[in-house]
Structures are given as structure tokens and as C-alpha cells.
Amino acid sequence: MRPGHAVADLGTGSSILALAAARAGARVVYAVERGPVAHVARAVVRDNGLAARVRVLRSDARSTELPERVDVLVSECFGPLAVTGTMVSVLTEASARWLAPSGVTVPARVRVLLAPLRSASIARALRAWERPRYGFDLRAAARWTAHNAYNAVLDPACLCAEPACVFELDPRAQTFDGGFVSTCEFTVDRAGPVHALGGWFEAELAKGVVLRTGPGEPTTVWNQCVLPLRAPLRVRRGERLTVRFEARPAPGAPHVTDLAWSVTDPRGRTLAHDTRWSDPDACPDGPPDA
To answer: Edge-to-edge strand order for the sheet containing 99-106?
Structure first.
């Protein structure tokens, strides 16, 4: 951003990014927020003496037209793995309607990365339901929990192959409906079991400024995502795993993203998972692969 620019803050929340843009010299900031926190944003903007330049608009960005094209469109749009939920798809729509031809988005680019994981602590956590508790057999619960996605902080030593980018988005140049499918291969760097996949994202905010949320990076609110395997896959060093990963909007729940992942080992064994199957209402008798 440069002094004199017009800025749009998509999903302004408490208005912190809109205030930062005003402090940096924005001529005007359109702070768009559909939720009731817009009232908080107006109060915060007023208390900071910036109401003349920061205009809080309580409205849904999908149906909002701004009085001018903006030079910068900023949004803290990330869910787990960045692209879950609806904010990234809204960002691409708003970019097409709100940005001037020479305008930029913050973030400028988003990448989703995956890697296979080997970790005794992850294995213990995934097997938690398989151990008797208070004298009761609770193993049935594992049939659903093996298809959930979990937030965690991963040790870089857990990675047993180089990460691969499974999705990349330029909000200025692409539209995004909330879904994508990717297939990639990983060459395992040491023998042993693979217990899960790990996922995270990187966001290029501006030239030379990258937000990294992977293992070993400074901790963020997003941490990393663990996608379990319902049984370990034992592999030798140098063998390849084929991974298919899919993200798609959940039917009837526009703010939810379903994730599906399958891993195939060199001997042709495939373990398939889907977060839809973690819902006991959707699968009252257990997931189809249980």
C-alpha cells in the first residue's frame, strides 16, 4: 500500500487491518463486515479518530458494491489449510469486482502443502480410542474419529518426505469455488510406518514477505493440520506413496469444507478417508470402509 491509495478490508472483524491501512496513509478504507462485530469495528475506528477515512460497511461482500475501484484488497481470509471455509472464494470474487486494473491483493498468493508423517505421539493419539477406559471397550468410536482432521503443532522431525504443494491460488487471476483435487507422489526418506498426512499453508503477503505456517516455523493461530490414516502404512526408504487430496464445500453447509484424502503404498494398498464420514449422523452405522 502507498499513501493516497483506496483500500478494501474484506471481513474486517474488529477493524485492525483497516486501522493499519489508515495509519499507513490510505486515502479511504472500506471495511466490509457482515457480522455484528461491525458495531465493534465502528466504535474502535471512532475511538482512534479515523472515522473520516475508515468506512465500516455492514454487508455481505458477495452483494456489496464499493463506490470506487480500490488499489489494495486485504483480507485475513485463512481457515485451516487456508482455503477451508468460504473466505478465500469470496476474496477471489471481490478481487474481480473491487480491484483497479493495477490493484493488488494481500495475500498475493496462497499455497497449500502436504507431507507424510511418522510420529509415535501422533500414533498414540490416533489409537486413543482403541485402549480400554474404565473397563469399557470404546474401539467403535475410532471408526469415526479416523476420518476427522485435527489441529496440532508438528515437529519437523515428523516429516518423512519432502512437502509437496497441492494447491496454489492467485486471488487476482483465479476464481475459486471452494474446491480442488490434487494427486502427488512422495518419496519416503527412511523406512518405517507412516501414520498420517500433515498439511499447512504459505501466503505471500507482498514481495519478499511470506507468512509460513509449517512445522518449525513460528507458531500461528492456524498451527498445522493432521489427516490421520486408520492404520499405519509401512514403507521402505526410497519407496513412493501416492496421495490424492480433495477439498470441497460441504452440501448444505456453505461455511464448511469437507476434506478427503487417500494414500496408496507401493504394494497397492490404499487407505481412503473423508471428513464426511466423521459425522455419526451421516454415517450412523460407521464409515463405509470401517
So the answer is: 54-58, 28-33, 6-10, 70-74, 99-106
